[in-house]
């Protein structure tokens, strides 16, 4: 009786996963022996890697993924328990190759353009700020920075003032 009650609780929470061809999914980074690790090992390893596109459904609970060349030795068919649906906008996902990531997992931010300028009045001072659009970010990810700092680092983005001409 207790078993059937617990089973009914578990069945209520269970949701059947199902993907369609063309969906994007994350692949679970399994710590099983003999599996290829993605990046770091141990506590700091990512739980999921990807996203990867589903090419076709193989059977009831397995899918074939379109894997990159680096993952060539891995068989492209995975059980549904190893997959997690990629929710979100595909445009906002950036690949590490596009970012120019260094060996220590850092990359250089590059200022693309100045979107806006504002001056805040603080008692006796005026502080000028500019809204910066960075490479690999959407307009929503633009940040406000001090204008003086940005002029010193990126003088080519600021038009010359009449006194400099």
TrEMBL record:
Domain Tf2-1-like SH3-like positions: 22-86
Record-linked InterPro entries: SH3_Tf2-1 (IPR056924)
Pfam families, A to Z: SH3_Tf2-1 (PF24626)
Domain of life per record: Eukaryota
Name of this protein: Tf2-1-like SH3-like domain-containing protein
């Amino acid at each position: 009786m207790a078993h059937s009650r617990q089973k009914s609780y578990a069945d209520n929470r269970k949701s059947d996963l199902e993907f369609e061809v063309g969906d994007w999914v994350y692949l679970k980074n399994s710590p099983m022996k003999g599996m290829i690790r993605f990046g770091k090992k141990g506590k700091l390893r990512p739980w999921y890697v990807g996203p990867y596109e589903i090419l076709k459904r193989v059977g009831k609970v397995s899918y074939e993924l379109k894997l990159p060349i680096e993952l060539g030795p891995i068989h492209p068919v995975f059980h549904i328990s190893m997959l997690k649906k990629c929710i979100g906008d595909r445009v906002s996902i950036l690949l590490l190759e596009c970012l120019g990531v260094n060996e220590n997992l850092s990359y250089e931010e590059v200022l693309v353009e100045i979107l806006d300028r504002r001056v805040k009045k603080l008692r006796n001072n005026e502080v000028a700020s500019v809204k910066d659009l960075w490479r690999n970010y959407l307009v929503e990810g633009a940040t406000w920075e001090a204008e003086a700092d940005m002029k010193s680092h990126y003088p080519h983005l600021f038009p010359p003032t009449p006194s400099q001409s």
